[in-house]
Specification:
Elements (H helix, E strand, L loop, with lengths): L15 H12 L3 H13 L6 E6 L3 H12 L3 E6 L7 H9 L4 E3 L6 H13 L4 E4 L3 H9 L1 H4 L4 E4 L2 H12 L7 E3 L4 H24 L7 E5 L3 H12 L3 E5 L3 H9 L3 E2 L2 H4 L5 E4 L9 H4 L6 E5 L9 H6 L3 E6 L2 E5 L5 E5 L5 H4 L6 H20 L8 E2 L3 H14 L9 H7 L7
Parallel strand pairs: 1-2, 1-4, 2-3, 4-5, 5-6, 6-15, 7-8, 7-10, 8-9, 10-11, 11-14
Antiparallel strand pairs: 12-13, 13-14
Helix pairs in contact: 1-3, 1-4, 2-3, 2-16, 3-16, 5-6, 9-10, 9-16, 16-17
The structure holds adenine.
């Protein structure tokens, strides 16, 4: 039996009016998701489906939560990170939309884990995950319910890495859709969303001039490409550090300097980690960084740079501004760590703007509907959303922007499908 959910756990219900304004602000820039919400209201494709969602509790996630609710689901939502919740948004979802929300900015890791367990013990048919913690907890603590899960969706590269590891061992207990693999997710959210929100958060936290600074980008995936592009656009000299030869070569040809972190450590003014890996910047690198170097993480997990080791090797830690810790070293240098190593763009800024989350969360909503429609017919593997659904999101987004494109003439179509029209 699923548990009866306890009362919502949020920080301050009185923030609801402000949260409602924020949600309305986001909704006006999320036309694709809104069109899905209107269809869901009519068709009720999720009627009676129990859904546990986990995500960064932002005004944009609110738009997804009310879309899932519009589809008729019986849902609950937990925060995917202890310090990224927008408390006003959480309050409005409870007060204005009657949703079961468990998200408190500044919640302890123990509270976060208790909320994850609530999401598991709700015995969901569908899990919407962001980072993989709900899926991992389901597998570890409720093997009895795993066979009853119709499927899960995963938002991030970090979560997909975990699902890939499970899939490689043939140990995925249900079909999982890697939403991040959709083109309308990673080509836009990761590149333009992370690119903009990460630079925005560094500027909000530190109010420093980016022009003329040396910015070191750790990782040249789609998020790294976006951060590099935006840093360059603001006048920075960009260095890229990579472990993948193909991506490193691409970074070189995109015009960036590429070198190992052991060399870049001495050159950087700002370090942005966006690798989905662990401890890519560590004690030997901290030891040679410039005085006043800034280091931050834009990846899902808070261990991309070794924040604990940085604190441990500091003689004192100051807090000159919110989200900025000055880690003073024995030799007098100060290294500034942002947001305690957690996602800088969702802590020191507001995450990606609504316009780009529109596509990411349209993918989430359609992935949930796909799992429901195809319940029992999908293998227990990691998969992507069918390409036609992905392309339809691009089509709807362009239409919402009032942009028309060409279509192929019959002669072009014939040419594209022939094999015998050579010179
Ligand atoms: N991840 C990055 N930006 C986000 C946002 N605005 N809402 C939810 N998750 C996000």
């Amino acid at each position: 039996m699923p548990i009866t959910l306890p009362s919502p756990e949020i920080n301050d219900i009185d923030l609801a009016p402000q949260g409602k304004k924020q949600i309305d602000w986001a909704l006006q820039d999320m036309p694709v998701l809104q069109s899905i919400r209107e269809r869901f209201l009519k068709e009720q494709p999720l009627k009676g489906v129990r859904i546990s969602s986990c995500g960064h509790m932002t005004k944009e996630l609110a738009a997804l939560a009310i879309t899932i609710q519009a589809g008729g689901a019986d849902s609950m939502v937990i925060a995917s990170n202890p310090i990224t919740t927008q408390d006003d948004v959480a309050a409005s979802l409870v007060k204005d939309y009657g949703l079961a929300i468990y998200a408190q900015r500044g919640e302890s890791v123990d509270t976060y884990r208790r909320h994850v367990q609530l999401a598991v013990d709700f015995e969901p048919h569908i899990i919407m995950d962001d980072g993989g913690d709900v899926c991992a907890a389901m597998k570890n603590t409720r093997p009895d319910w795993c066979d009853s899960v119709w499927g899960s969706t995963e938002e991030t590269t970090a979560g997909i890495t975990r699902l890939k590891a499970l899939d490689a061992q043939n140990a995925l207990p249900w079909p999982a859709i890697g939403v991040n693999e959709s083109k309308t997710k990673h080509l836009f959210d990761n590149r333009y969303g992370t690119g903009q929100s990460t630079l925005d958060s560094i500027m909000r936290a530190c109010n420093i001039l980016i022009a003329g600074k040396t910015v070191v980008i750790m990782g040249y995936g789609w998020c790294g490409r976006g951060c590099a592009m935006r840093a360059k656009g603001l006048g920075a000299n960009v260095i890229v550090c990579e472990v993948d030869h193909m991506k490193a070569l691409e970074a070189v040809m995109d015009g960036y300097r590429v070198m190992p972190i052991s060399e870049a450590s001495t050159l950087g003014d700002i370090f942005i980690c966006i690798t989905s890996n662990k401890h890519v910047i560590d004690t030997p690198h901290f030891a040679v960084m410039k005085d006043q170097a800034i280091i931050c993480n834009a990846g899902h997990q808070n261990w991309e740079f070794n924040y604990d080791a940085l604190k441990a090797c500091s003689v004192t830690v100051t807090e000159p501004r919110p989200y900025v810790e000055g880690c003073v070293q024995a030799d007098g240098r100060t290294i500034y760590a942002l947001s305690q190593g957690r996602l800088v763009n969702l802590t020191a800024a507001e995450g990606h703007p609504a316009s780009v989350m529109d596509m990411s969360f349209a993918n989430q909503a359609l992935a949930v509907e796909y799992l429901v429609k195809n319940k029992g017919n999908l293998g227990n593997h990691l998969m992507t959303l069918p390409a036609e659904l992905d392309y339809n999101i691009a089509k709807l987004k362009l239409a919402s922007m009032g942009i028309a494109i060409d279509s192929m003439t019959p002669a072009m179509l014939e040419y594209m499908s022939s094999w015998n029209m050579g010179t």
